[in-house]
Design brief:
By secondary structure, the chain is α/β, with parallel strands linked by helices. It has one domain (63-501): Rossmann fold (3-Layer(aba) Sandwich). It is built from eleven helices and 24 strands. Strands 1, 2, 5, 6, 7, 8, 9 and 10 form an eight-stranded mixed beta sheet that branches. It has a three-stranded antiparallel beta sheet with strand order 11-13-12. A hairpin with a 3-residue loop joins strand 12 and strand 13. Helix 2 runs parallel beside helix 6 (323-340) and helix 4 packs parallel to helix 11.
C-alpha cells in the first residue's frame, strides 16, 4: 500500500497554536500487535500478546547496561546550552496508559488524573492507580523527580494528565482508547496555564487496517488537527515486521522506534533496536530515541514489579526496554521544544524533529537512513512545513477490523463486531460527532455514561475527573462489572504507605488473555 498525497493544499484549523493544545493515556484491550517481548531477548521470538508497546522489563535482556535518564538527556542533546535550561514548564502532556501510582518520585503538583476508563474504574480501591506498572514507568521518563536517587524526568515541569485505560493485566478495548482520545481533544484547554499539547500513545491495536478509514487513526488525527502533537510507539515485533502498529501507521503522527546506546552517551555507536518494528510495505519510522534498559520509576507491587524482579534498580527504580520508552522520551522532548517554540504546529514539530535528527551510523539503521532524536539541533531548525500532504482518515471503517486479534473477554464471551463495552458502535456516526468534538457530553460518550461530569478538587494541581458507575455488560449478558471469578491480579488497597502498597491482595479476572508488553 502506498500513501496517497492530496493534490490540493490541505487546510487545517490549529486550535492550539501559541501556548495552547492537548493529549491522553492507554486504556487498552488486550492485543496481539504492538506488544513487546516480555522478559526475553528480542531475537528469541517470544512475544507478549499485548497492546502496550514495551516489554523487555528484564532490562538486561537487550544485552545493554542500564541507561539513566541523565544519560538519555545527553544522548538526545538536551543537557547543555538552551536545551539544558528547558523543563517543559507550561506544556501539558496527556498519557493514555495504565494509570499512575502515587510513588514518591512523581511530584503531585505535576500530575492530574483525567477520567479512569479502565475496567478497574469500578473499584474504589483501584481507580486511577497503576496496577500494571507501565504508566508509572512512562510518567517517570517524562516528569519524574526521585529525590532518593537524583533521577529526574526529561520534562520535569510539564503537567501530565493521566488517562487510565489498562488494568493489571493490560486489558482494554480499542473503543476505550478512542473515547480517551476524544476526551483529551475536548478538554485540552481546561488548564489554561498548561494546555495539553502532546499526546503519548505507547500502544498498538491488534488490527492494522487502512489508515484512510481506520477509526483509531481517525481519532489520533482529530487530536493532531486540534493542535496536539501525537507521539506513537512503533511496536516491538522486530526489524522484519512488515508494518508499524496501528495507530503508528497513520502518516500524520510521529512514529517512534527504539535505539540502543551501547552504554555510552555518544551517538556514534547507537543502533536500531532489534525489537523495533521496521516497516517494509507501508510507511516507516519517523525517528528513533533511546529505548533500551531505560531506568525510570518503580511501581512496587505492580504486575511487572512482581513478575520481573531482576529489572529492579534499588528500591525506587526499574529498568525496561521498548518502543514505549522511546515514545515517552520523544514526548518529553516535544514538551521541551514547545516550551521554547510555542507557536509550532504539530506538522512543524514533526518536520523540525525529523530534519534535525542525527543519522544512525551503524547497522541496519544506517543502511535504512534512520535518524535519532536531537533536541538541541531541533531548537534552531527552521520550521517551514505548513501541512503534510496526506489524505485524512474518514473514520468510517469497521471497529472490529481495528481490533484485529485484540479482544477483551468476559465469562468466555469476546467483545467483537461493531460494539463498544456498552452497546453498538457506528463508525461513521461517531466520526461525525468526534470531528466537531461532540462525542463527549459531560461524562457521557456517545450517550453512554462512562465517567463523571466534571473535575473535583480545589485547585488544578489537585484536580481529578469524577468517576461513574457503569451499566450492565450487554455483550456478555452479565449485570455487574464486579466478577469474583477474575483470573488476573489487582490490589484491594489503593494507598501508598511508605514504599509499599497497603492492604494488597491478589484477586482474579478474565477480562483478557493478553498483557501489556
Amino acid at each position: 500500500m502506498r500513501l496517497r498525497k492530496t493534490r490540493s493544499r490541505v487546510v487545517s484549523r490549529w486550535l492550539g497554536t501559541g501556548a495552547l493544545a492537548a493529549t491522553v493515556p492507554f486504556a487498552l484491550v488486550a492485543g496481539t500487535t504492538g506488544g513487546g517481548v516480555v522478559g526475553a531477548a528480542p531475537e528469541s521470538g517470544h512475544r507478549s500478546v499485548s497492546g502496550w508497546a514495551s516489554g523487555l522489563w528484564m532490562g538486561t535482556a537487550t544485552g545493554t547496561t542500564s541507561t539513566t535518564l541523565s544519560s538519555v538527556r545527553s544522548i538526545i542533546n538536551a543537557s547543555s546550552g538552551t536545551a539544558g535550561t528547558l523543563t517543559g514548564q507550561g506544556v501539558g502532556v496527556a498519557l493514555v496508559d495504565t494509570g499512575i501510582a502515587p510513588v514518591p518520585g512523581l511530584p503531585a503538583a505535576q500530575i492530574v488524573n483525567g477520567p479512569d476508563l479502565s475496567f478497574e474504574s469500578q473499584s474504589n480501591e483501584l481507580r486511577y492507580l497503576d496496577t500494571y506498572g507501565h504508566g508509572t514507568h512512562m510518567a517517570g521518563i517524562i516528569v519524574g523527580n526521585d529525590t532518593a536517587t537524583g533521577t529526574k524526568g526529561l520534562a520535569p515541569k510539564a503537567k501530565l494528565t493521566s488517562l487510565k485505560l489498562g488494568t493489571s493485566n493490560g486489558a482494554v478495548d480499542v473503543t476505550q482508547v478512542i473515547a480517551a482520545i476524544d476526551w483529551i481533544v475536548l478538554h485540552r484547554n481546561d488548564d489554561p496555564a498548561n494546555p495539553i499539547r502532546v499526546l503519548n500513545l505507547s500502544y498498538g491495536t491488534g488490527g492494522n487496517s487502512a489508515y484512510e478509514t481506520d477509526p483509531v487513526q481517525f481519532a489520533v488525527e482529530q487530536a493532531w488537527r486540534a493542535g496536539i502533537t501525537v507521539v506513537v510507539a512503533a511496536g516491538n515485533f522486530g526489524n522484519n515486521t512488515a508494518k508499524l502498529t496501528n495507530p503508528a501507521t497513520d502518516p500524520h503522527v510521529i512514529a517512534v522506534g527504539s535505539a540502543g546506546s551501547k552504554g555510552t552517551t555518544s551517538t556514534a555507536d547507537d543502533t536500531l533496536s532489534t525489537f523495533t518494528n521496521l516497516a517494509t510495505d507501508f510507511r516507516g519510522l519517523d525517528l528513533v530515541a533511546p529505548g533500551e534498559s531505560i531506568v525510570s520509576l518503580r511501581d512496587q507491587g505492580s504486575n511487572i514489579d512482581e513478575g520481573y524482579a531482576t529489572a529492579r534498580v534499588g528500591e525506587t527504580l526499574f529498568k525496561g526496554s521498548g518502543t514505549s520508552q522511546a515514545a515517552a522520551v520523544t514526548s518529553a522532548a516535544v514538551a521541551l521544544l514547545l516550551q521554547n517554540r510555542p507557536t509550532l504546529t504539530p506538522d512543524q514539530v514533526k518536520q523540525v524533529l525529523m530534519d534535525s535528527a542525527t543519522p544512525l551510523k551503524v547497522g541496519i539503521g544506517a543502511t535504512k537512513g534512520i535518524k535519532q532524536l536531537n533536541l538541541g539541533a531541533a531548537l534552531t531548525k527552521p520550521a517551514t512545513a505548513t501541512y503534510q500532504p496526506y489524505d485524512w482518515s474518514t473514520g468510517g471503517g469497521e471497529i472490529e477490523t481495528a481490533r484485529g486479534t485484540s479482544h477483551v473477554m468476559r465469562d468466555n464471551v469476546a467483545l467483537s463486531g461493531n460494539s463498544t463495552l456498552f452497546g453498538p458502535f457506528h463508525s461513521a456516526t461517531w466520526a461525525a460527532y468526534s470531528a466537531v468534538q461532540r462525542s463527549w457530553i459531560g461524562g457521557q460518550w456517545l450517550g453512554m455514561r462512562i465517567a463523571g461530569d466534571g473535575w473535583t478538587g480545589t485547585s488544578f494541581a489537585s484536580k481529578t475527573w469524577a468517576s461513574a458507575t457503569w451499566p450492565g455488560i450487554p455483550w456478555s449478558g452479565a449485570s455487574s462489572w464486579v466478577d469474583p471469578d477474575w483470573s488476573g491480579r489487582y490490589w484491594a488497597g489503593r494507598y501508598w504507605a511508605g514504599r509499599y502498597w497497603s492492604g494488597r491482595y491478589w484477586a482474579s479476572d478474565d477480562w483478557s488473555t493478553a498483557y501489556w508488553g
